[in-house]
Amino acid sequence: MPTAWPAIPYDDWRATCDTLHAHTQVLGKLAVALAPPEPQLQHAALQLTARGWETLPLPAPDGSGAIVVALDLRTHEAVVEHSSGREQRVALTPNRPVGDVTREVIERLSSLAGEVEINATPQEVWWTVPLDEDHEHATYDPAQVAPYFAAASQAALVLAEFRAAYRGRKTPVNAWWGSFDLAVSLFSGEWADPPSDDFITRNSMDVQEVATGWWPGDPRFGEAAFYSYAHPAPEGFKDAKLSPSAARWHEELGLFVLDWDDVRASPDPHTTALEFAHSAFRHACMVCEWEPALLASAEGSPPPVN
Hints:
The chain is of the alpha+beta class. Helix content is 33%, strand content 21%. It has helices at residues 10-34, 98-113, 142-164, 199-204, 260-264, 269-287, 292-298; strands at 47-48, 52-54, 58-59, 66-72, 77-82, 87-91, 174-176, 181-191, 207-215, 225-231, 248-250, 255-259. Strands 1, 2, 3, 4, 5 and 6 form a six-stranded antiparallel sheet that branches. A six-stranded antiparallel sheet has the order 7-8-9-10-12-11.
């Protein structure tokens, strides 16, 4: 039976959202420092699991095994785990600055697995203070994190189902710490020119793709929403009527969006969000002239399991 999806008005939990976002940046910086580089910066992506945001297994700096660093959003702790079974935990308390948490996480990791250094400059955000010096972001309300985590978990399940049948190259459901969103990318197999020359763009957008994701809101778009875009997108890409009818083109962001509250209000939110993802991908494949077999596979032909 469909279950109610939680409301997460961005303005109501903005301070906690920004603090949590900053904490995820620490995990991302560790992935960048330790993981073997991959195309489209996939090595830098995190994942959303049943306990929260976490890295994939990373090489221990001292060569002793693997480590995983997580934000446990059930116990409200940062967790550093070693493949030997040893672990360290750092509390995410309501009034503790990001800088204090960052330094302690790095210290705990170094004690378990060897010294590590990160570039503490935050990325893709509207603040500039280094993570290990950040005393501005110190609001962490577990009662506000809980509905966010419930919403993000539902969104991740939609994205996982959407990507499942596709037979071309695709990403997992990535948790991106720069933009604080969840996203999957489906690739056509063709190269593409990056839209700009900054480090992130030229390394992450050098192939043809359709990206579909979800975010909890930010200052540019002050509410939670699903989104979808194509790269590169031909002229007229925005001229489409997607399904469901509440989906719309956002001119400033350059992508299609479906507001979280419109999804929540539907009789079956999961099906409604999945409908949007498939509708956007279908439109993108047609106007971007992707191989028809790729679109067919995304829609289950041939079935992924026989």
